[in-house]
Amino acid sequence: MTPSDGGGIRPVDTEEFDRFFTECRYTAFRLETLQIYDVGYEEEAFRRFLADGQIITTDSHSEWARIVGGERHFRRVHVVIEPLTDYLRFECVWAYRSNVEAGEDVNILPVAENTWPAGIPRSDYWLFDSHRLVRMNYAPDGTMLTPELVTDPGEVVLANAVRDRALHLSVPFSEYEKRFDADMKPL
Q1: What is the dotted CATH code of the domain comprising 11-179?
Q2: pTM
Q3: If you average pLDDT over residues 149-167, what whole number do you get?
């Protein structure tokens, strides 16, 4: 998603970004489109998963469970290109299963290679309470560059429409994972 007027965007530091999660009153929605993310706190868990399929829990699991627990409704759609990358298999087993247990609605929008769903941008964002839009910018290797707060009303409306379309096209993670074994390899 690109701003319609070139304005209404500013970088967000870690402290402010973290505050968005505690300040949101009703809903938080995440659109994920990358097939690999390079997230520091996952490195050891990802390495172990690749080495022997071992799943370890980390402090990030309990922290996320604390955030998504309660009255607010957290939802996510991840557009995944099949066959799944090793990272996506890991994310499904390590993160999404525990996210769902914690109360987050995780949905998957599977697509075949060289296809992409119409109306869904190839960019990640968080949308808090349907009015606070944070664009997540990543390097090609999945390393986070910087989140940006987007205040352009047209972009916020578009993000809401994309959210609704992505939710309509996707399936709940609990349904999606039935197509795979415990390590998210196709049955």
Answers
A1: 3.30.870.10
A2: 0.93
A3: 98
